[in-house]
From TrEMBL:
A single GO cellular-component term on record: plasma membrane
The protein's name in its UniProt record: Succinate dehydrogenase/fumarate reductase iron-sulfur subunit
Any one Gene Ontology molecular-function term assigned to this protein's record: metal ion binding
Pfam family, one: Fer4_8
Species in which this protein is naturally found: Streptomyces agglomeratus
Amino acid sequence: MSSYTAAFRVWRGDADGGALEDFRVEVNEGEVVLDIIHRLQATQASDLAVRWNCKAGKCGSCSAEINGRPRLLCMTRMSVFSREETITVTPLRAFPVVRDLVTDVSFNYAKAQEVPAFVPPPGVAAGDYRMQQIDVERPQEFRKCIECFLCQDTCHVVRDHEENKASFAGPRFLMRIAELDMHPLDAAAGAGVDRKKTAQDEHGLGYCNITKCCTEVCPENIKITDNALIPLKERAADRKYDPLVWLGDKIFRR
Ligand code: SF4
Ligand code: F3S
Ligand code: FES
């Protein structure tokens, strides 16, 4: 078992501003970045704020940026860095800072609320829903999401453009819409909710230019772009160019 001393640079501050602070800290074999943040709290910076819960990559709480890349602190092994390099840990850039490494991610909860919930099929009692595995295989992948919001943080549509936040749901919630649109029992259409149309008109699907940065940072390895966003775009385009839909829209608008 070999230990060494690493150079860490951690952002300290709050909504009024802050700065990077340098530390030298012990690292032991097998540790992850969250272990080092905890050691800093225990030995040098007892008031260092960090959000975490499971330390197992499952709660989605410990999201931050390590050397500028959105990552889970608890799933980033120290062994991926060289012993000589300085490791910089900063809060998620797309969301307002609360303190140190903790950000206010309520943007995401607001976006979640804007997506109409699953609409149960009429005439089927709860508990009597039946689906074939083949029909749920595609949306099932999206259920692995741990809501870490790393994809939301990295997407350039909002990362550098605060003004886009009002009209863009972000990859996580566009994926949610795709999931519901692919759900074999979702009866939203019968309840007057056209998920493909609202994805375009209300949730900013058109802002996504499939850069795939969201997919690259997803700790659950969900193929957000290829399996959710591109199919949703294709379904929305099919809808737009469907002559019956076009005629319906014309009649409805009159
Ligand atoms: Fe995190 Fe992936 Fe879910 Fe995005 S899709 S919130 S990156 S788990
Ligand atoms: Fe953003 Fe992902 Fe699209 S990063 S642009 S939502 S492919
Ligand atoms: Fe739960 Fe990192 S502490 S995902």
